[in-house]
Structures are given as C-alpha cells and as structure tokens.
Automatic annotation (TrEMBL):
Transmembrane segments: none annotated. GO terms for cellular component: cytoplasm. It comes from Pseudaestuariivita atlantica. It comes from the Bacteria. It catalyses: 2 cob(II)alamin + reduced [electron-transfer flavoprotein] + 2 ATP = 2 adenosylcob(III)alamin + 2 triphosphate + oxidized [electron-transfer flavoprotein] + 3 H(+); 2 cob(II)yrinate a,c diamide + reduced [electron-transfer flavoprotein] + 2 ATP = 2 adenosylcob(III)yrinate a,c-diamide + 2 triphosphate + oxidized [electron-transfer flavoprotein] + 3 H(+). Gene3D superfamilies: Cobalamin adenosyltransferase-like (1.20.1200.10). This is Corrinoid adenosyltransferase.
C-alpha cells in the first residue's frame, strides 16, 4: 500500500528523481519521460470521464487503474531482477491487453465501416477521447523509444497501442455509433 503523508520531499530539487527500484535518474531520462506521459494520458482519461456515464465511464475507470499499473511497471527497470525483489514489481499483463481487445471488438461490431478519416470532435466526450487517443500514442512512441535503450515489458507497449485504438472506437460509439462523427473532406478549403 502507498502512504503519502508529505507531498514535497525536496529530493528532486537538483533535477533527479527516484525510480521504483530506488535508483536516482535525471528527470529528463527517457524512462521518466515515458511514464510521465502515461500519467498525462491518465489525466486526459480523467477529463473524458467528466462527460462519461454508465458503461463507458466504468471502462474508463478501469483504464485509469491500468494506467497506474503501467506507470508502476515503467518506473521499475531491471525486469530480469524481478524474482530477487523484496516485493514483486507490478507488471502489465497480456490479460489487460486482451480485455481492451475484447472491448474494442464489442464496440466496433455495431459500427459502420469508415469511408473517410474522422476529425476529432462531435460530442464533448468524443473530443476528449480523441485527446486520450493522441496522448496515448505519444506515450506509446516514447515507450517504444525507451525499449531501444533498456528492457521494457512488451505488454506495456501492446497496452498503449490497444488503448489508442480503444479510444478511437469509443469516440465513434459515443458519437451516436458513428452517426455524429465529423468526417474529413480532403481539400475542402482550397
């Protein structure tokens, strides 16, 4: 369990922060940038939830929890030392990825095929889901870049990839199952 009784510690005042294994690194390190962008993704999901109700809100709440899991995974390097850790590190699982895939398939089953790209918008919730989609794509790109330098749990990358797809499909669902999608008209303003 996490206990936070003091919010500022001053230990980061020199531009470093602690990872989940206690190692200190620069706040601009690729690992910190990746999990920081996962945290930013979570904040955009929180904004989307301001407009969500029912099943979509419950699914977004589960995604927010998953994103904390993902941040915990990314802030803990040295996956090969997981068995030696005093407390087993929290790692993303393929089951979390499979859940997103199942939800995408269920949501997509009632949608008509697209004949054009969609402009972010329609309803307020759809617009926020598009923001979630783009920020999660950035988190994915940064996590993939981190994986070229250090070991990264493959399920973390897969989750971010599916999350952006989930947000896209969900945006269509909340836009009247696609009826209220705003379609791109190539060259419309030439």
């Amino acid at each position: 369990m996490v206990v936070l009784n003091k919010i500022y510690t001053k230990t980061g005042d020199a531009g470093e922060t602690a990872l989940g294994n206690g190692a200190r690194v620069a706040k601009h390190s690729m690992r910190v940038t990746a999990y920081g962008t996962v945290d930013e993704t979570n904040a955009t999901v929180g904004l989307a939830r301001l407009h969500a109700t029912g099943d979509i809100d419950a699914r977004l709440a589960a995604i927010q929890n998953d994103l904390f899991d993902l941040g915990a995974d990314l802030c803990r390097p040295d996956m090969e030392k997981d068995a030696e850790a005093e407390y087993p590190p929290l790692r993303m699982s393929d089951a979390q990825v499979a859940r997103l895939e199942s939800e995408i398939d269920a949501m997509n089953s009632d949608l008509a095929p697209l004949r054009s790209f969609i402009l972010p918008g329609g309803s307020a919730l759809a617009a926020h889901l598009h923001l979630c989609r783009t920020v999660s794509r950035r988190a994915e790109r940064l996590t993939v870049e981190l994986a070229t330098m250090e070991a990264v749990n493959p399920a973390a990358v897969k989750y971010l990839n599916r999350l952006s797809d989930w947000c896209f499909v969900a945006s269509r669902v909340v836009n009247g199952n696609g009826a209220d999608d705003v379609l791109w008209v190539p060259g419309a303003n030439r």
